[in-house]
Amino acid sequence: MDEPREDAPETRETASVPAAPPTTTIEIADADSEAAGDGGPYKNLWVPLVVVPAGIVFAIVAVFALFGSLGGSEKTLAENLALVVSGGKNERQQALFGLTRQVTENRAALAEGREAPWEVPVGFARDVQAAYEGLDPDEYDKMLVFGILLSSMGEARGVEVLLELLELTDDQDPEGRVRFGAVQNLGLLADMGRAEALAASAPVRALAGHEDPGLRVVAAGALGSLPGDGVQEALQGLLGDQELQVRATAGLSLSRLDPPDPAAIPLLTDMAGAEIWESAREESPGQFRRASDVQRFRVMAVEALGRYGEVTRAALEAHKESEDLRVREAALRMLQALGQK
Description:
Layout: H1 61-67, H2 77-86, H3 89-111, H4 124-133, H5 140-152, H6 156-165, H7 177-191, H8 201-207, H9 213-223, H10 231-238, H11 244-256, H12 265-272, H13 275-283, H14 291-306, H15 313-317, H16 325-337
Helix pairs in contact: 1-7, 2-3, 2-4, 3-5, 4-5, 5-6, 5-7, 6-7, 7-9, 8-9, 9-11, 10-11, 11-12, 12-14, 14-16
């Protein structure tokens, strides 16, 4: 799968999309197509939902997974919505992608204090909801996109749609793609402070035990933003998962709890070094093959260790002379926050 892009992508009377606080971007480390085998579109991917907390781009990776990197469209929001409802198959896919891209660009612009690049027709959220209500019962991919669109416009119904999609069975969502996208976006909405998304805690905990490693990964990431009974225990259980992607994501999420869970410190310490990634690459050559990915993951681990304060000072000290300049800079930054000049 191609690495997802972070660039997200008319009527006269318009209404602005409500501004939102900064959201968390999603970084995906792709896997070699042959090494990934015949699994779903995200098999053998590490999707750390806790990456780049200062990011502003609302996650739409699910749309790329569903429809691929389709070409952008210059159609208006209203025109794209009309094509989703009545266009041909290819037109519907292009329009779904275009809609999500346009709303994402608007959110990013407003979060930066800029004017939204795409005019939003008055009543557009109502029109999106009407289009959702007109879907066939098994059009789960469209339900996901409409849920993302509605929730990105501040509509509670969008969160409800995403929560409903978590109830899909393996027969209804055989590759897990729809549930993957729903979990991913619910975690981000919870991270943004959307209280209604917190209802996802129980169903996401259930997916943390799914046999599909992709669903376990995305559940591990989202649980870091979904407080509730059993969350900490579920994440601790994932520290023993056979997949490094799952273990690592769970470790990062445990570091984000309040207070951070020290059970993740040994794993995070390993993640800050290079050896664990080299071993994983030797065992499965399709994983972690890009040096930039490994560097980013090591920096994440160092920053996670910094959340524990003095307890992890020695682990941070071990990397202040790292051969990797980014890792070294992160370690020095964390140590400075602890009071070392």
